[in-house]
Backbone:
């Protein structure tokens, strides 16, 4: 901290007070029923990335990229919610507004949080300010890293902001694309953060910084660089150790498609490998998409007090946001997912707290189907559905197995598995959208097995599919009216399935 520096900042700033008054007033126009049952939505207006996901003072805190004034991206604030179980969220007043004249008047972009030794809560975020004009006359952004410190409700921006800026960048790195600090404390007490940056060649790189106090930061080096294989700029980095491996998560922009593994547009990437203790460089061994569905971006993880690594993401994607909202809010988070590394793969599973929400258990075993089948008690849009399917005759595999859901006479979504080529396809073409954006995606199930297990977590306007115990996932929002709640099974060729279904409270 600079000599004599104090924390001054946005308490009482007109912008923050106005945003707080606005969200308090407007939230009363949103009925609880208009929100998902257990997925976090913005208090009002627009939400994108999860920010500051942390366990502080006995509760989980989740902040989010937030424009309270409109269900459209603009002037980023940090919305704020707290929870005891990661499923029931209570809104707290918006935590940060873009109100610091030199650092963040154009937005408080994504970042993270931790608890300082004295018990205060530190937020580290990207300040975006105007940085001159581009040749075409547009304003060029200037991005730098800032901190705000608080008590879990009120946060004060540090007078010495920015704490990491132009002078802390390696040669050639962009000052316009430098964002999304993820901060953590190592066992030896030192603080570290990784920040997304654009290198001279236009590709993303992840920079590593170190600090003794979270205020004075020293540049360590380039942790990982994109050689152009995975999109261009990388956003929202996160680095952690898990099950004996090092895991780097990033969200690449402008991807090119590659089989069914990666699709064009904004994607997500999990790199499993190890950080070389000598060079500090991350050596990646496997590069995989984090979620094969449509609406998933900008992951962030937290370590829970009982040692679980839990990931959450924006259940949306920049390439599929053209659906206009029917609510006064837009955007929601995924269900928090417990992570593991198994056989070189990131495995995801809904947090175990979700099991406590299960009601009205229905279970079927060894149901033989060929053609279309409905099962008594198996329907709903806020539901947990577990299906295990296998060939009725192992010597004579089936051609396809389909689950239709969010279905009525006119609309449906589907999951279609074809064991011949091992592809699973998620589809919302007939889900009621009148817009021509991405409506289906495929993924390859390794080994193309004839036995497949699927878990579908439905929460009104979304589905999250966990394949084979969470080895792969597919996440998708659903535009269909909630009255479309039928679930139907179909097979071409004989299959046998076990089905377990719960309503989720
Ligand atoms: C990712 C992202 C971040 C940025 C934020 C702005 O979705 O583009 O890189 O900080 O959104 O809202």
Residues:
């Amino acid at each position: 901290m600079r000599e004599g520096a104090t924390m001054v900042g946005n308490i009482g700033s007109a912008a923050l007070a106005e945003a707080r008054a606005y969200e308090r007033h407007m939230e009363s126009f949103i009925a609880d029923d208009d929100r998902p049952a257990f997925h976090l939505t913005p208090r009002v207006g627009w939400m994108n990335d999860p920010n500051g996901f942390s366990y502080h003072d006995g509760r989980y805190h989740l902040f989010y990229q937030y424009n309270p004034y409109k269900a459209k991206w603009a002037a980023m604030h940090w919305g704020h919610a707290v929870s005891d179980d990661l499923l029931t969220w209570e809104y707290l007043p918006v935590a940060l507004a873009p109100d610091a004249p030199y650092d963040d008047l154009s937005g408080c972009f994504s970042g993270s949080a931790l608890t300082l030794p004295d018990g205060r809560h530190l937020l580290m975020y990207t300040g975006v300010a105007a940085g001159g004009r581009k040749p075409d006359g547009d304003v060029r952004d200037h991005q730098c890293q800032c901190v705000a410190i608080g008590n879990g409700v009120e946060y004060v921006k540090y007078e010495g902001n920015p704490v990491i800026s132009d002078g802390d960048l390696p040669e050639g790195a962009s000052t316009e694309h430098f964002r999304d600090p993820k901060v953590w404390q190592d066992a030896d007490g030192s603080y570290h953060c990784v920040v997304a940056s654009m290198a001279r060649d236009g590709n993303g790189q992840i920079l590593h910084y170190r600090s003794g106090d979270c205020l004075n930061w020293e540049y360590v080096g380039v942790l990982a660089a994109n050689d152009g294989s995975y999109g261009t700029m990388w956003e929202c980095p996160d680095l952690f150790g898990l099950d004996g491996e090092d895991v780097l998560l990033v969200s690449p922009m402008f991807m090119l498609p590659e089989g069914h593994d990666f699709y064009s547009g904004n994607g997500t990437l999990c790199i499993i490998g190890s950080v070389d203790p000598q060079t500090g460089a991350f050596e990646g061994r496997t590069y995989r998409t984090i979620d094969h569905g449509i609406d998933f971006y900008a992951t962030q993880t937290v370590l829970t007090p009982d040692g679980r690594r839990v990931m959450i993401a924006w259940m949306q994607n920049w390439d599929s946001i053209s659906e206009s909202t029917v609510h006064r809010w837009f955007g929601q988070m995924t269900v928090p997912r417990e992570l593991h590394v198994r056989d070189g793969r990131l495995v995801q599973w809904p947090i175990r707290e979700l099991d406590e929400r299960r009601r009205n258990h229905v279970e079927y075993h060894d149901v033989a189907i060929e053609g279309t089948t409905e099962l008594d008690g198996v329907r709903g849009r806020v539901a947990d559905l577990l299906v295990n399917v296998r060939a009725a005759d192992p010597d004579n595999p089936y051609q396809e197995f389909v689950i239709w859901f969010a279905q009525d006479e006119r609309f449906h979504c589907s999951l279609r598995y074809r064991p011949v080529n091992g592809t699973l396809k998620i589809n919302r073409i007939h889900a009621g959208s009148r817009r021509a954006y991405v409506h289906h995606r495929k993924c390859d199930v390794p080994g193309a097995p004839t036995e497949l297990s699927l878990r579908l977590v439905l929460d009104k306007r979304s589905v999250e599919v966990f394949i084979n115990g969470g080895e792969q996932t597919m996440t998708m929002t659903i535009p269909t009216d909630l009255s479309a709640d039928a679930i139907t099974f179909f097979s071409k060729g004989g299959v046998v399935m076990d089905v377990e279904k719960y309503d989720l409270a």
Notes: The longest helix spans residues 14-27. The helical segments are 14-27. The first strand starts at residue 45 and ends at 56. Residues 81 and 92 are 5 Å apart (CA to CA).
